[in-house]
User: Fold Derlin from Stentor coeruleus.
Amino acid sequence: MSSNGSRTDICVKIKDWWDKMPLFTFYIFWISSILCILSYSPPYSVHSLYLSYENFADRKWFWTLLTYPYQPSGILITSISLYLYTTTTSESERFLGTSRYIIFFGYYIINIGLLYLGLIYLLKWISSTLFAHFSIFPFFGIWPIIMIELVLKYNKNPQSYIKFLCSPCQIQSQYFPWIFFFWISVFLISRFWEMLLGIIIGHLHLTGYMNWILIPNCLVSKLEITIFRPLVKFSRYAFAECEDVNIQRPRANEIFVPFSGTGNRLGEVRVPENEPPEVAMEKIIEDDEYSFNTA
Assistant:
């Protein structure tokens, strides 16, 4: 009886996860799954979508700056990455809205890709040995966005304590992305650059210097009746839940500002300027007696 109940709960959770998946997250899930299956087909070349120094600088395949996050590699790694992606980004897309999230996604994959190319180019001038070693690893997959989402999610309440995955040990929320990064890098060392750059960009996002990419609702409304109008017709399209978007910085960085307005301190009696103190005191005593009698 309990096993049937647990199976029912799992099925309900899976159905709920599937039904609540917003449009762009749903699109990433399907396109990555299809490209993963195609990667096992001999006629299909996965290298045409990977971002690498050779593809971008030597072969002039500039489209790889936009296509690298959609091309996964390996069924197991793809399954893990898509599960993490859909569970972390669905909430963000529903909060920001599909139109705003598409711009958010595109802006960050371009910046992360350019940062990766810049680092590889820098290694070329520093050490030919390091350049030859790191340039052979292509840059691809959805891991950078996953790490950005983890940084933003676990820095909402950075000082709170949470469990690390299934471990009984508790850690501060703000350290979860870094511990997760070092832990999973042991098993996915080939995806080291994608995850590291994702964490770095996520922390830059927390500083607030990149808030300008989160466009206001008035512009979102214009985009929804122009460029993104065909997407609005889909049932999975997410309209923004927030009235105005501001990235909250960690609470540890907040500065206490004392109240500087006008008013009376607790227990203080304010005497009118144009009234003699004796008259004012009599009124205060009368008010106190009235309140005492009515009580």
